[in-house]
Amino acid sequence: MAKMWQGVTDGVTSKIADDFNSSISFDSRMYREDIAGSIAHAKMLAKQGIIAEDEKNAIIAGLFGILEDLESGALKIDPSAEDIHMFVEQVLTDRIGEAGKRLHTARSRNDQVALDLRMYLRREAGEIIELLKAAAKAVCAKAEEYKTAVMPGYTHLQRAQPILLSHQLLAYCMMFLRDIDRIEDCRERMNVCPIGSCALAGTTYETDRRFEAELLDFSDICRNSIDGVSDRDFALELMSDLAILQTHLSRFCEELILWSSWEFGFVELSDNFTTGSSIMPQKKNPDMAELIRGKTGRVYGDLMSLLTALKGLPLAYNKDMQEDKEPVFDSVDTAKACLGVFIPMISEMKAKPENMLKAAQTGFINATDLADYLVRKGLPFRSAYKIAGQTVAKCREKGCILETLPLEDYKFLCELFEGDLYQEIDLKACVEKRISEGGTSLKSVEEQIEYVKKQLSEP
Fold it and tell me: By the 8 A CB rule, do 351 and 260 touch?
């Protein structure tokens, strides 16, 4: 394919250089955005009298024809083209002649690329938001299903205090809600139109940038033409948001991996989202959860790649900026793929409340409540803490749990213990006593469920 930029040179470059320079293999995914942007540009040029109406009509008809042929497969993207922008323009010119050459008036590939990327990421961000809402709904539904299941809560991966499984699951719902907010905020900042910035300094033509921006559903225009073509902070922001999202997915999946092991036995993942071993028939491997955890590193790497590419660039456009697309595309693809697997994996997951309760009972996680019992009887907390620790040691010595240690053993350690202590250290009672807002009591959890549902139902 002929080089559209030949003029000062003959447009002939080494095949090695052509291959190295080309971005068609990855930026071709933006063909819809490129065509939509060009249609809006043609309309603006005609409105301003820069091109004639019949030229505008020919350009738009030609672009719609290209779009239809690309969608149907009648037109194949030429891998020898330099990029998707040059490919579309070349095909248009081949089909409609001289009018096609007028389309590029009052714009540069620099602002065209920035436009296409903003439009593409705006659309993809919207799809990720919808996937995140579905993920939060799936987790919230699972919390509601196992609303009263008691499990050990952990700190330092050590059994700490009794909580409800629903409380733990809802913690991730809150993270996902913040992920949604972050991406929505990013999408709003991204929705600024760079077209008309041209190469870097604007144009001598009397254009109407705001008209063109409105046609493309942008809320504003880039106020500085150099900034419009030379920054990719909108891509970095989205990638940063996706890295945080992946952190949340990865942490959740790490817990699913632990919980589904024989050592925990808290949940069972569906056969649809696990695999077997090639030589060990008893195994059920949480491969999908592990892959989500592993793919998180890709998204981190993508973010670092673009940060590094941009960190030393002088204004305005540099060819280094072509390196923005592969990492941001990979981040988007990876996050969407992970969410696409995560949602049904959570929906099909089954919890094992009896195993969770057993683990909670044998972990002495009601020891804090035992100390609180003594504090209410008038003992200073530090003294109560020591006696509670001695009681746990006595249970270990006798091979029992706090709930089954005889009252005489309690009284031997402290005369303040009475028969009512067993009610106080019952695990379900321990959970229900966490009455502070946002805590693990059933009432609090029900309020959290309603909050999540309300947030997800709002437009």
Answer: no
pTM to 2 decimal places: 0.92
- Predicted local distance difference test score (pLDDT) of residue 278: 72
309 band by pLDDT with thresholds 50, 70 and 90: very high
Task: Please say if 167 is a catalytic residue.
Answer: no
What six digits make up the tokens of 95? 């089909």
Question: Which CATH class for the 15-101 domain?
Answer: mainly alpha
**What are the start and end residues of each CATH 1.20.200.10 domain in the chain?**
118-199+220-358
Q: How far is CA 326 from CA 102, 120, 374, 402, in A?
A: 30, 13, 62, 58
| Residue 14 in tokens | 């080494």
For the domain spanning 118-199+220-358, the CATH number is 1.20.200.10
Residue closest to 93 by CA, chosen among 1, 15, 31: 1
pLDDT in tens, 310-334: 999 999 999 999 999 999 999 999 9
Q: Could you say which of 14, 156, 278, 436 is catalytic?
A: 156
Residue type, 88: V
CA atoms within 13 A of residue 450's CA, in its CB half-sphere: 7
Residue of 25, 80, 219, 277 marked catalytic: 277
Q: What is the pLDDT of residue 10?
A: 55
277 is catalytic: yes
